[in-house]
Amino acid sequence: MTDDKFVLGGHEFGSRFILGSGKYSLSLIEAAVKDAGAEIITLAVRRANTKEEENILDFIPKNVTLLPNTSGARNAKEAVRIAKLARELGCGNFVKVEIMRDSKYLLPDNYETVKATEALASDGFVVLPYMYPDLNVARDLVSAGASAVMPLASPIGSNKGLATKDFIQILIDEIDLPIIVDAGIGKPSQACEAMEMGAAAIMANTALATAGNLPMMASAFRQAIEAGRKAYLVGLGRVLTRGASASDPLTGFLHN
Amino acid sequence: MVTINGVATDAAGKTVAEYIASSNYDPQVIAVELNEDIVSKKDYDTTVLKDGDTLEVVSFVGGG
Fold it and tell me: Could you report the per-residue pLDDT of A152-171, keeping only the tens digit for each?
């Protein structure tokens, strides 16, 4: 189990928990990273404030890989601009493509996401596209040069869990890239379930940011993700559609 | 006028380096885009802003 590495764009990671950094105090980031055991953390790019503002990079341990997102982009062109700005900020070449036209449900625009993925992959980025789980689009993302596919479990920030479970399973079964379940995972049991299904990793932010104790919830997610991964690797026990099957010997007592 | 982070600003004639210094940005933690093209740090000194330009100055924040 110790050599079970998560490979993303040619980089190896020991952890399968991608941590978000939004909606909580910068002072909690270090504890969150440590208790999550996370090796990848997401960031956003925004118009800068002047010097008095705290710099988030000062709070992130140096061995953690930064995964900037393109949130705020409404089309492929804006996503490419944001990705290039992120790269110029000196954080490496990973990018999570996130393109939304819809501000009520914050659903990703799959069509623009494919276009941005193609442009950024050909420009040398390790592209992790956030998408609505659709098999045809996932195949297009593979062709476009994505390094993983990140289907949503339910709307961003909703904590509603695996609403798209059956469609994520199709991606896991059919797509030859890591499937990272992103958005909507609300509790450790849901992260565990996605990992049992064969997801390569889990990305969570709001579930932690809105929990009673962020570092402790990060730790709970870590354990759930590890448990789910272990169960997936060994293979779950079978399910009987009818009847029962005793776990105890049925002979050698009272009646026979 | 130069539109900087969405605000019309009297910065025409300044270099990017001069604007950044006068606005109290930390050049280590920002990236700059002029008219939708990245300006590398090494070009801050030689890139002069002119009327009608659009400048974006960005940095990292928390996000998911």
Answer: 999 999 999 999 999 999 99
- A84 among known catalytic residues: no
Burial of A128-138, coded b for 16+ CB within 10 Å and e otherwise, reads bbbbbbbeebb
Q: How far is A21 from chain B (nearest CA, A)?
A: 5
| Interface pTM, i.e. ipTM | 0.94
Please tell me the CATH code under which domain A6-234 is placed.
Answer: 3.20.20.70
A71/B63 CB distance under 8 A: yes
Which residues of chain A does B33 touch, with a Cβ-Cβ cutoff of 8 Å? 81, 84-85
Residue written as token pair 């390790």: A126
Mutation target to probe the B interface, by most B beta carbons within 10 A, among A17, A26, A50 is: A50
Per domain, the residue ranges of chain A are: 6-234
Write down how long chain A is. Answer: 256
Q: Do B64 and A89 touch (CB under 8 A)?
A: no
Nearest-5° Cα angle at B8, B2 to B14: 35
Task: Name the fold adopted by B2-58.
Answer: Ubiquitin-like (UB roll) (3.10.20)
